[in-house]
Amino acid sequence: MHLRNKVIACLETLRFFDQEVYLDRWGWTEVSGFNYRTDYDLKGHMQESGVDMTVFKPHRTKKVKTELIVKPVHSAIGPVFKEETSKVIGLILKADAKKLSLALKEQGYCMLGNFKILPDYVNFIQKKTEETGRRFIPHVIEPSFGSDRLAYVALEYAYSERKGRTVLSFPLDIVPLQLAVLPLVNKDGLPEKARTLYALLVREGFSVEYDDGGSIGRRYARFDEVGTPLCITVDYQTVEDETVTIRDRESWKQVRAKIDDLPRLLYDFFRNKVTFKDLGLHL
Q1: What is the C-alpha separation between 84 and 87, in angstroms, rounded?
Q2: For helices 262-270 and 190-203, angle between their N-to-C axes, nearest 10 degrees
Q3: Global confidence as pTM
Q4: CB-based burial, 223-260: b 16+ in 10 Å, e otherwise
């Protein structure tokens, strides 16, 4: 069977299926549905709008199509059918040429309506045409996703508890917030330095939040709860050597890196080109 026919046969048997994921709390949960619509939708659009929605698919090689054409013999039909001539000619032109030819060969005549058609009334011609491709109405598969269910699944898989704290371990490509910039304390020029770093990272295109409220430990915990992968802390050593501490959401470990290297390191990190351990010197 041709591959296209196999695909259609497979889809015909499915018609509709659900995509499900397994959740610890709820078991198998539907997150999307897929419906095979055949050409029903586009055909309906064509009929209502009058817009041609067919597509042309060229053949890999040119094909020659042979078609049997039937032509009425007016000079033979007219004297026999007289005023019914036009009706008989119309029936012959609408008839299936192959079936008409076969009937005339096997039984010597063919009935079209109430009219008996004899071999003398028609001529058959083999018409050859060159086909470079075919035009057809595409079939459509309609996917249906529930954004609320997908969001819930992401939260379900990301949620964990560690030492009494909530941690959302979102994958890097869907985290709502990439970075947090934190001054160690709110004095001695650290907030101003942290604000400058925050502005730099925002200009570089990262999603960043600045937070100076409460102890540094509480701030780390807050950003773990919302799934922020990295917290960057500006401390007293930053003032001395332009380096900062980077804390990992998953391991709670820290490394130290130069501010000038941060944009390049963070770009690579959020594109999964490097891991946390590659961001700086381990503390």
Answers
A1: 5
A2: 50
A3: 0.59
A4: bbebbbbbbbbbbeebeeeebbbbbbbeeeebbbbebe
Using only C-alpha atoms, what is the Rg of the chain? 37
Distances in whole angstroms, Cα of residue 114 to Cα of each of 10, 78, 111:
44, 16, 7
- Which amino acid is present at 174? I
In terms of Cα–Cα distance, which of 259, 267, 205, 250 is closest to 232?
259
Q: Which structural domains are found in the chain, ordered by start?
A: 3-54+137-145 (no CATH), 61-135 (3.30.720), 150-282 (3.40.50.800)
16, HSE (Cβ side, Cα atoms, 13 Å): 6
DSSP character at residue 118: P
Q: Taking 50 as the threshold, does the pLDDT of residue 1 lie above it?
A: no
Among candidates 258, 239, 257, 237, which has minimal Cα distance to 247?
A: 257
d(CA 190, CA 234): 6
The C-alpha angle with vertex 223 and arms to 222 and 225, in degrees rounded to 5, equals 70
- Which of 279, 231, 282, 227 lies closest to 258, judged by CA? 279
Tokens of 270: 């959020």
Q: Is the dihedral of CA 271, 274, 277, 279 positive or negative?
A: negative
CB 231, CB 246: distance < 8 Å: yes
Taking each continuous run of H as one helix and of E as one strand, the counts in the chain are: 10, 15
DSSP string, 27-45: EEEEEEEEEE-TTHHHHHH
244 three-state secondary structure: strand
Block residue for tokens 């001529």? 123
Residues 47, 54, 44: CA angle, nearest 5 degrees: 25
Alpha-carbon span 115 to 235, nearest angstrom: 103
* pLDDT tens column, 218-263: 999 999 999 999 999 999 999 999 999 999 999 999 999 999 999 9
pLDDT of res. 124: 92
